[in-house]
Amino acid sequence: MRRSHAILTVLTTGALTAGSFAVLSPSADAATTLGAAAAGKGRYFGTAVAAYKLSDSVYSTILNREFNSVTPENEMKWDATEPTQGTFTFTSSDTIVNRAVSIGAKVRGHALAWHSQQPSWAQNLSGTALRNAMVNHVTQVATHFKGKIDSWDVVNEAFADGSSGARRDSNLQRTGNDWIEVAFRTARAADPAAKLCYNDYNTDGQNAKSNAVYAMVTDFKARGVPIDCVGFQSHFNAASPLPSDYQANLQRFANLGVDVQITELDIEGSGTTQANTYAAATNACLAVTRCNGITVWGIRDTDSWRASGTPLLFDGNGNPKAAYTAVLNALGGTTTSPSTSPSPSTSQPPGTKSCTATVALNTWTGGFVATVKVTAGATALTGWTATVTLPAGAAVSNTWNATAAGSTGAVAFTNIAYNGPVAPSASTEFGFQGTGSAPATTATCTAR
Ligand code: G3I
264: Cβ below 6 Å to ligand 1? Predict the structure, then answer.
C-alpha cells in the first residue's frame, strides 16, 4: 500500500455582520480529538473495537474521529482465530486491522496466549500436545499479522490474584513454568518488529501480584528473553480504585527498560468524580516517559463489558462525557466550545467575517482521509461551511465534527453546534473519509 501526504490551502469568502459575541477558547492550534492530542504528547490514544459494531455509524464515526490505536476486543483471541486445531480464521480480526490502516491507527494485538477464551479443543489438551499447539498458534497468528502490529499482548493474565505472588494455575502453566518465555521467543521469531508485551490486571499498583510480574520482567531482561512492554489493564471501580502509587508503579517497570502501556482503561462512575479519576490516570501516563499509550476498553458506555457501571468516555448516544473532556484536556487538547459565557464587557466592534481552510490528506490506493482545519480571520465566527470538491468516482463515506451535504462532487461541510463558534485567528478541525481518489485542490470556506 502506498501512502502520500499533501497539504492544500484554500481561501475565503467574507460576510459582514455586527454585534457582540462570546469570548472563545483561545487555543488556536490545540488538538480537538483524543488521538491528535495524545500524538502531540508523543503517545497514542486507543480503544478496544468489536468488529460487529463497525457497521454502527455512531460507533464508527467516533472511532474514526477520536482514536489512533485499536485493540480487537475478542477477535484475535485463541477461540476466535483457531476454532478448530490447525484451521485459522482471520475474517473479523482482518476487518478491524483494515479499519485501523484506513484511519492511520496503530494496532495492539490481543492476545496470543491466555488461559481464558481458548477453543474447546485446546482446553482439552495438556502437556506436550498443548505446548506444541500454543507454539503453533503463536507462530501462525503473529505471522499472519506480521508488520501490522505495534504491540502484541503475547501473554495475558498469567499470575494469580492475592498475596501468593504465584503463577495462575492453568492448563498452560501446567505445561511447565517456561511457557511464558517460550511464547515470547516464538512471537519474536514470527514478527520481529512488533513490541512484545506482558499484560495483566490488578497489577496497577505495587502489590504481591505486580511484584511477581516485576520479578519476571527483571529475570527476562537479565537472561535476554525478548520482552518490550508491560500492559496495565486498569479496570477501576469502587472495589478496585485507581491506586495512589499508579504512576510510581508504571515508573518502576519503565526503569527495567520496558515500555509501559495502559491497555484496557475503564473507570466505573459518573460526573466529576469519574472525570477526575480519568484525568489522574492520563496524567500518570504522561508523567512516565516510557508510557507510550492509553487504550480505553470500548467507546460508549453501552459498548462496555460492564455497561451498567457506565465506565467509558462516551454515553450510550455517543455524546462525550465529562470524563472525555477531562482526558482531552489532560492531553493538552481542547473542545472548541466557548470557555466562558458571553459578557457585555468583552463585546468587540463589528467586523468582516472570513475564514480559511487547510486540508491535510492521507491517501492510499482506493481511499483517503482528509483532515480539514478551519481558521477564522480577525473576526470571530458563529459558524462556517467548507466546500471540498471530490474528483469523479470519489465519495465521502464518513464525516466527523461536521455535517456533509451530499457525498460526491462539491461537498459542503457545515459546522455542528459545538464547533461553529471560532475565536478570531483560532481554528477548529473536522475530517472525512472517502473512497476513490483524493480531492482536488479546490475548496472554499464561507464564514458566518
Ligand atoms: O459472540 C457470542 C455470542 O454469539 C453469544 O450469543 C453470546 C452469549 O454469551 O456470547 C458472545 O460472546 C461473548 C463475547 O464477549 C463477545 O461479546 C462472550 O460470551 C463473552 O464472554 C465475551 O466477553 C469478553 C471477555 O473478555 C471474555 O473474557 C468481553 O467482550 C471482553 O471485553 C473481555 O475482555 C477482557 C480482556 O480480553 C482481558 N482483560 C479483561 C477484559 C475484560 O473482561
Answer: yes
Rounded CA separation 355/421 (Å): 12
Name 417's Cβ contacts closer than 8 Å, sequence gap at least 6: none
Catalytic one of 73, 264, 268, 429: 264
From 74, 304, 306, give the residue whose CB has the most ligand 1 atoms within 8 Å, as the site to mutate: 74
Whole-model pTM: value is 0.75
Q: How confident is the model at residue 381 (pLDDT cuts 50, 70, 90)?
A: very high
Which residues are paired to 435 by β-bridges? 367, 395
As given in the structure block, the three cell numbers for residue 235 are 479496570
Q: Which residue has the higher pLDDT, 166 or 20?
A: 166
Q: Find the 282 Cα to ligand 1 centroid distance in Å.
A: 26
Tell me the per-residue pLDDT of 24-58, one tens digit each, with 9 for 90 and over: 444 457 899 999 999 999 999 999 999 999 999 99
Q: Residue 5: its pLDDT value, please?
A: 52
CB burial of 273-302 (b: ≥16 within 10 Å; e: otherwise) equals ebbbbbbbbbbbbbebebbbbbbbbbbbbe
Tell me if residue 429 is catalytic.
no
**312 and 299 Cβ atoms separated by less than 8 Å:** yes
Alpha helices in 41-161 (DSSP H): 57-66, 78-81, 91-102, 120-123, 127-144
Q: Is the CB of 4 under 6 A from ligand 1?
A: no
DSSP line for 245-258: THHHHHHHHHTTT-
**379 neighbors 353 (Cβ within 8 angstroms):** yes
Please give the Cα distance from 201 to 209 (Å, whole number): 9
